[in-house]
Amino acid sequence: MLSRRAVARHNGFPLPRRPLHHQSTRHIQTANVTDVDIARLASQPLHPLTLADLCKHGHPPLSEQALLNSANFTLSLLPARLAHRIQSLRSLPYIVVANPNVSKIHSNYVHSLSTLLPYASRRIETLKDEIAFTAVMADLVQTHNNTISILARGFLEARKYITALEVTRFLDEHLRARIGTRLIAEQHIALHFSSQPHNPLHSSAPPKNLEVEESSYIGVIVNALTRKPA
Q1: By the 8 A CB rule, do 192 and 67 touch?
Q2: Which of 67, 151, 177, 222 has the most CB atoms around it within 10 Å of its CB?
Q3: Residue 96 and residue 109: Cα distance in Å, rounded?
Q4: 3-7, 82-86, 187-191, 200-204: which range is least confident on average?
Q5: CA 114 – CA 118 distance, rounded (Å)
Q6: What domain count does the chain have?
Q7: Which domain holds residue 181?
């Protein structure tokens, strides 16, 4: 049984490239983030993320419409999640938020929200928009790579102004929120690269005499595990 990558090599198909992770953020459109934007988005209830949410767009390779649905679902979740994190950071004592490390994380969240606001008032309806949106997701993931360690350093430096219990509570909540946000973004990125419009492996059918191994992944989710009883 041959994998899709092996089939590609056998037939001379080009292997899929992943340029978005290396794309310069200079080409990502941003919008000014106001306090009104943050308050409006933070007032929205957070959608509780489930495994069904992450798998509901189907098994890759996704069609163009399913991929656009994934992008719009991702867009419906992330602005409010980012705004909630900004509000949470702003609820800390001012002298703590003024710490350079904590302030950096606050700025990172504002930046990520600024990259999503241009899409907030419309739907993603074309592959061109979806490609640009996926670049935004890659930027979001990269921007928040070291969030917890930077926050922990900032809290350590500001330990005179915040109790250890307050730090623990904040970091626990922030870690849970960050995992969910990152999972949402990475799920769409993975679906993007494994979908029909963007993956040359799916644009041509493999030879009939070759059996292609079906991937057990739906994006970043191992589908084989979700079908097994606990």
Answers
A1: yes
A2: 67
A3: 16
A4: 3-7
A5: 8
A6: 1
A7: 4-13+31-226
